[in-house]
Each structure stands twice: as C-alpha cells, then as structure tokens.
Write a structure and sequence with these properties.
18-stranded antiparallel beta sheet; about 45% strand; disordered N terminus; four-stranded antiparallel beta sheet
C-alpha cells in the first residue's frame, strides 16, 4: 500500500540525518594543515566513516555505518548535485559500506563547506522497512526525491530557536507532505555513547508529521519525535526515537584522509571492549602498502578508560593485559610487552579538549620514525594497535601523519 510510505519519510528525516550529519572543513582545510602531535581530533570530513551501535528494525544492538561510497555517483536534483551516501548494517567498524548486502538506505547528500547538510532524496534498501511501524506502513523500494531539499545547520541555529521545514515528495501517484520542526534545546549536554560519555554536545529535538488527505485518520498529523546529540567535531553522536523503538550511539569514527600522494593524515577514535583490538593502519586507506618508508611517520595514540569513574580512579592500563604496539609490516617501533613503559600519563586531552578539567586521566604514546631498513621496495604500512585482554573497556584515539608514495 503506497500510502504507508508517509511514516517512512518522517522516519528518514529524523533517523538518517543524525547518521549523515557532518561538519566538514572547507575544501582548503585538509590534512596538510594538521599538527599530528598537538591538534584536537578534528571535524568530520567528507571522507569520514561513522559507525554507531544501536537498534533499528532488524538491526538489534548491532553496528550501523554511514559513509560516502568509495565510487560515489553524483546525481542532480533540481539545481544541486548530490553525492550518494549509504547508511546500513555492517558486521563491525572495519566493514566498508561498499560491502553492505544487508539492510541499508541510500541518501543523496550535499555537504556544504560551512558544515550545513542538504538532502535531496533517498532510496530504501531494507533499512527503513525493517522498522516494525514502517514495515506495517510499507515503504518498498521507492526512489524518493524531494521537491525542495531539506537543509539543516545544527551548529549555527540559536539555542531554543525553532525552525520549520516542509518536505514534499511524490511516491508513485501519491503526494507526500511532511512538516518538520527542529529546535536546539540544550547546550553543553553530555551524550551517553558506546565510546563513553561525550560532553560539549548540543541536544536537538525534532518533530515530524504527515498531513496529506489520503493518510489514514489514525496516522494523520501524528508527531514522531526524536532527540539527537550533536558534537561540533564528531557530528551527531547519539539519537533516540522512542515511538519507533530506535536508538543508537557513536562507537567508531575513522578518516583515512583525502590525499592521493604526498602528505596524508589518517585518524580514528573507537571504543575497545574486552576481547577487541583497536587498530589504525595506513594500509586500510586503500588496501595498499603505499606509505613511504624513507620519510618519518608521526604517530600519536591517546588511551582513556571508557567508563568515567574508571577514567578518574584507575591507573594506566597494564602493559601486558592491554598491549600497545607501534610498527610496520616487518618491524616494531614500540611494544609495551617489552617491559619499558610506553604510555605517559597526562591530566589533559589533546584530542578531546572539551573533557579537560573533568578529572579524567589520559595516557599517551608518540612515535616519530621511518623504516628505511625495511626489506623490499618502497611502499609499507605504518600502524598502531591496542588489544583489550582485560575486563574494562577503553577508548582509544589515534592519528598518523605520513607520506604516500607515487605509483
């Protein structure tokens, strides 16, 4: 029944926006301007991959990833050219959106240089329709384009100021009109995420209702509301839509940079639970050994206990239980199991300055090395890893600045 798609449209606006919303730097502000050792983690870019853990329909307490497709096709809707992003079910943060075969939704997105987001439409591939309420309504695989794009700028909108938008689309022969209201309701809020509590967020409340005459009386005008927690660096880090039984929070954010040759910076922040391993590797950028072994790579790691109480009271992670390793394919620069302490205690965070002054303790390791003696031709891998063989979760953040060789 085509009329069922009204609920899915409201669901898309409230649900997909938090997954997609980025605050990218302007095109001129890329990796070459980053100070690997001293800068904060950095804003979300068009190259950033965001993984959340949560419940969305058939995804029950699972991983949901959002990223631009590696060979993102463009599409012109109206006078705007959009890129194709995918939000879908993955087995873990390391799985690419290009490999998704399970439930997903493709969304046509234009991310502005000031961080605002414009959405031109979407095509569901089983993600929206796996939500029980939406499954009952029936969304199918409709290719939906908006008559006027949805434009949201959560960082610039004044606190307590409500803004409205009307999204219109055609679903087959049926028109659809969704009235939206979104309001920043709280500053400096703390979001509870899989990474642990993240402070310095904006909580934004969104409500949506469809009012077309053909919509059944039981649904017409019914508000579906949700809250999203927006972090100026990490974008939306958590959201909650109670009526649909949907909630999710940030578990991993990874960015492999935008350089094809020359200097590049890759970075990652992730929760590391018992039995898991954190790894940031230059190889993962393009599945190639393309790092220059003759030029120093700068590698920085920050470790913090994920639980806030532990972050205030527990000492440094045991070097044998939580081994820290910096190295290449063939060599090792640092290994905490060798017996020499590698983590340096700090009362302040370089990557997450909004947490400073909260009583947390952070632990750092920095390596500035090349691998000129590595056997074989040039083209290697630099990597950082932390394994959790203990009983308490860690939050690990890392960055590697290195040179990509010319092929």
């Amino acid at each position: 029944m085509k009329r069922r798609t009204c609920g899915s449209e409201i669901r898309l606006i409230i649900l997909i926006v938090p997954f997609l919303f980025c605050s990218p730097n302007s095109p001129e502000e890329h990796s070459e301007s980053l100070d690997v050792r001293n800068d904060p983690f950095g804003t979300v870019e068009k190259t950033t991959e965001v993984t959340m853990v949560g419940t969305i329909g058939s995804i029950n307490d699972g991983y949901i990833k959002s990223a631009k497709l590696s060979e993102s096709p463009s599409r012109t809707i109206g006078n705007t050219t959009y890129e194709q992003w995918k939000v879908g079910d993955v087995t873990g943060p390391g799985m690419s959106v290009d490999s998704i075969t399970g439930p997903s939704t493709d969304v046509w997105v234009d991310i502005k240089s000031n961080g605002a987001l414009q959405i031109g439409g979407f095509k569901d591939k089983g993600l929206l329709s796996s939500v029980p309420l939406i499954s009952i309504l029936g969304i199918g695989d409709s290719d939906v384009t908006f008559k006027e794009p949805l434009f949201i700028d959560p960082e610039e909108q004044p606190l307590k100021e409500s803004r409205t938008a009307t999204v219109e689309a055609n679903l087959g022969s049926l028109p659809l009109t969704v009235d939206l209201t979104y309001t920043p309701v709280e500053e400096n809020a703390t979001a509870i995420t899989t990474l642990g509590p993240l402070s310095g967020c904006r909580r934004i409340h969104v409500e949506g209702a469809a009012t077309d005459s053909w919509i059944p009386a039981a649904l017409k005008g019914v508000k579906i509301s949700g809250d999203g927690w927006y972090h100026s660096d990490m974008g939306f880090v958590a959201f909650d839509i109670p009526l649909l039984g949907i909630d999710a929070s940030l578990a991993d954010e990874t960015d492999y940079g935008d350089a094809e040759t020359g200097f590049n910076v890759i970075r990652k922040v992730s929760s590391v639970h018992p039995g898991e391993t954190f790894e940031l590797s230059t190889y993962e950028r393009n599945n190639e050994l393309d790092a220059d072994k003759n030029t120093h790579a700068k590698m920085l790691l920050e470790v913090r206990w994920a639980d806030t109480t532990n972050a205030k009271t527990m000492g440094a992670p045991d070097p044998l239980t939580y081994p820290v390793v910096f190295g290449t394919v063939w060599g090792t620069f640092v290994d905490s199991r060798w017996g020499t302490p590698v983590l340096v205690e700090s009362p302040v965070s370089i990557f997450h300055p909004e947490e400073n002054g909260k009583g947390y303790t952070f632990y750092y390791c920095f390596v500035d090395q090349a691998a000129k003696n590595e056997p074989g031709s040039n083209g290697i891998e630099y990597k950082i890893s932390v394994s959790n063989n203990g009983s308490n979760a860690l939050r690990c953040t890392a960055r590697i600045g290195y040179t990509i060789i010319e092929n």
